[in-house]
Amino acid sequence: QVQLVESGGGLVQAGGSLRLSCAASGRTFSSPAMAWFRQAPGKEREFVAAISWSGGSTYYADSVKGRFTMSRDHAKNTVYLQMNSLKPEDTAVYHCAAGRMAGGNIIPLRSYYDYWGQGTQVTVSS
């Protein structure tokens, strides 16, 4: 089992920044990839970004590329999502997830992620 706890959400004006954190515990070695997904009211949960624990390779959704950066800290078993130039359409509950890779590649699909955090609310006002 892997336990995930997110923090860092809040209310910010458009153009502002936030940094989300996700602390992982338990059998983290069984989940080589960490990701962020988000879910806005009335919408499906969508992929945002992912990172591999070992090599640090990253993968971003087109909608956040160039604005969001995901990173990891092995010593703290924590991953981060730095979100800059936030837009109202970024408003959602952001969930951290831990999961599998395929052939050494990050797969941006919910089905590849086995463990999920409770989520943290991000609200961007216009």
Description:
- The chain has 126 residues and is mainly beta.
- It is built from no helices and 11 strands.
- It has strands spanning 2-7, 10-13, 18-26, 33-39, 46-52, 58-60, 68-73, 78-83, 92-99, 113-116, 120-125.
- Strands 2, 4, 5, 6, 9, 10 and 11 form a 7-stranded mixed beta sheet that branches. It has a 4-stranded antiparallel beta sheet with strand order 1-3-8-7, with no helix packed on it.
- The chain starts with a strand and ends with a strand.
- The model has no long low-confidence stretch (mean pLDDT 95).
Strand content: over 45%
Helix count, DSSP H or I runs of 4 or more residues: 0
Shape category: globular
Would you count the extended β strands for me? 11
Largest sheet: 7 strands, mixed
Rounded average pLDDT: 95
Distance between the termini: 40 Å
H/E element sequence: EEEEEEEEEEE
Give structural attributes:
4-stranded antiparallel β-sheet, single chain, mainly beta, 126 residues, 52% strand
Structure described in brief:
The protein has 126 residues and is mainly β.
Topology:
Blueprint: E1 2-7, E2 10-13, E3 18-26, E4 33-39, E5 46-52, E6 58-60, E7 68-73, E8 78-83, E9 92-99, E10 113-116, E11 120-125
Parallel strand pairs: 2-11
Antiparallel strand pairs: 1-3, 3-8, 4-5, 4-9, 5-6, 7-8, 9-10, 9-11
